[in-house]
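Researcher: Go.
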Amino acid sequence: MSVIYLDNNSTTRVAPEVVDAMEPYWREQFGNPSSLHLLGQAARHAIEVAREHVAALIGATPREIIFTSGGTEADNLAILGTLAAHPTKRRVVTTAVEHPAVHSLCERLATQGYRVTFVGVDQIGRLNLDEFAASLTDDTAIASVMYANNETGVLFPIQDIATICNARGIPLHVDAVQAAGKLPMDVKSLGAKLLSLSAHKIHAPKGAGALFVGRGARLRSRQVGGHQERDIRPGTENVAAIVGFGEAARLAKQRLASDGMASVAMMRDRLERGLCDRVAFAYVLGDQSHRTPNTTSIGFEALEAEAILVALSERGVCASSGSACSSGSLEPSHVLKAMGVPQPLAHGAIRFSLSVETTDEEIDDALRIVPEVVHRLASLTAKRDYAARP
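Model: Structure:
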């Protein structure tokens, strides 16, 4: 059975070029990059080349890139490191639809004496900028806002948000994990002080990420150890993964320069239209005019996402749910709740996320399999007339 992989927002396949770039650093180039001998300095050089490539992907300078173990650590370092550097300020402003790396952290901060504001969104996931601006106060230590939503792909107006924050002297952290490599990005133009990246979202391995730390950002390390990564993130670097991250960033920048994501957007749109044409109870969730080129979230009314995903997996289709299983019951995700998506749609929300490796043939197969699966499930529930549209 062939696999149709439409879950690239969860992780991507490591590109062959990336594997080739990494392989020597598991074998002959195994030195510790902090060592002064030949092997150590070869590893150090490889890290610095990777740093240049990651910086170039987002328009930063190499010195502004701090390598981490992934996007979650980068998010935590940005927020907790800023709070530690501003101990007298006890307010954090974020949004109601952040990735759990930020959302769950902020929920915990709220139990530790911090005042946290979760700014809301409208029914298609757009941020309320007036509410955001009004939430910023003199005791706000940091604002943390995602660039692209991981469930819907909806984009936030980061430049406008940064302008608001900078006018108040409040550092802005941007979780750009789902935007990097999919959209051209220049951190200088964006105006953010801190920005998080993850390697395994751009065809590099899991276990590497980065935090952009812009000029003027005050950040205190949350770990104690060696002097790696400018004393901001101590600990021996994952050399092979960082090398892979750098190579993937180089390849991603090349694709963006040649508008390589345009074909991905066309396939995404064809999948989306085809499913809505074939399934009368399918609805696109989120702003369709401002989103990443690879992502669509579709709610299949009155069905359960878990059942859909299991049935799709049995047919070789890999996708993700817009819901999370908690305490034995399927509950809509905090993102869909914040958008006010009706429960019959939220419970049946499926995220399909493509990549540059997705093919037209895979989309053809998905357009055949997904309607078959959801119509069969719908007929079993007998909750409504589920006849396909002609």
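Model: The radius of gyration is 22 Å.
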